[in-house]
Structure prediction request, 319 residues.
Amino acid sequence: MMADTPDPNTIVWFNNQFVPLAQANVNILTHALNYGTGVFEGIRGYFNESQQDLFLVRAHDHYERWKRNAGILRIQIPPSPEELAAITIELCLRNGFRSHVYARPLAYKSSARIGVAPDANDAFSIVVMPFGDYFENKKGLRAGVVSWRRVEDNAIPGRAKICGAYVNSVLATDEARRNGHDEAIFLTESGHVAEGATCNLFMVRAGRLITPPGTDNILEGITRASIIELARNEMKLEVQERSIGRSELYVCDELFFTGTAVEVAPIVEVDHRSVGSGAVGPVSARLRALYNDATRGRMPAYIRWLSPVYRGAAAGKAA
Ligand code: PMP
Prediction:
C-alpha cells in the first residue's frame, strides 16, 4: 500500500478557511473523536498526462451521498455539492497537484465536551493529497472471509461512511492481513456475502455479473454504480443485484472488488481456493480497463463523470 501521510504544509479546508494541514487540529474532547460521530467520503482525481489536466471522479455524486448520509446522524453540511466540488478543485489548484489525488471530506459533531447526546455543533473539513495504488498486487488479490460480521443497518448503518462504523472494517482488515489475505470479505449476520472491508464485491457466474443488493448491509458504492453502468452499456452484460451465498464464492468464474481507493481489483484466490482459472478473468480485466479509461478522461461518453481541475479553472478565468 502506498504512503498516505500528506505533507503538513498541504493546504486543507478546515473551519471554513484554507489553512496548512499542520494547523487543522481538533480538541481531544471532540464528540466525533470520542463517539465516532463523523461521516466521511473518499474521492479520487486522476492526472491525465496527455491532456495535462486533473479529473475529479464523480465529485458531485460523492458530495450528494455525503450530505444525504450525514443526515442519518443529523449532521448539517451547508454548502451544495457544486460548492463542495469547487472547494475541492481550489484545494488542488492551491497545492498545485499534478499527480493522481485522493480527497477526504469529513463532517463531524464538533462540540468538545462529555456526553453522547448530540447537539447542533457540526463542522467539516476537506483534505486532498497525492495518492497512488491502494493495492500493490496487480496480478490479482487473495481474499478471505473473516469471522467479523458486517455492521447491521439497525445497529450502525453501513450505507453511510460513519466514522465509528469503520471499527468493523479495521477489525476485518487486521484479521484478513494476519491470515495472509490482501482483503477481507464480510458476511452479513444472516450469512450472505456483503462486501470487502473497504470495497464492494462483484461475482461473474454463467456470464452474468452479480453483486449484493443495498439491503445486504453494503455501502452503496459509487464505483459499484459506475461498473454496473459500464457493464450494461459497454459490454451488454446482464447485471443482477441479489444476495450471494458464501459457497458461490468458491464455484464462480470471477470475483473482483470495486471502490474509489481500490478501483477495480480482481481476486484470484478466496479462502485459499483459486477463483476460476486462478488468473485474472476476462470480464474483470475488461471492466478494469474500461473503468481506467472512463475515469482518466479517455471515453467521451463518461466525461460527464469528471470535473477538470485545470481546464475548469482556465474556463472560469476566461468567462
Ligand atoms: N464499501 C465500503 C465499506 C467502503 O468503505 C467503500 C469505500 N468508500 C466502498 C464499499 C466503495 O465505495 P465507493 O465506490 O463509493 O468508493
Notes: The longest strand covers residues 101-109. The chain has a mean pLDDT of 96. The chain has two domains: 11-130, 141-299.
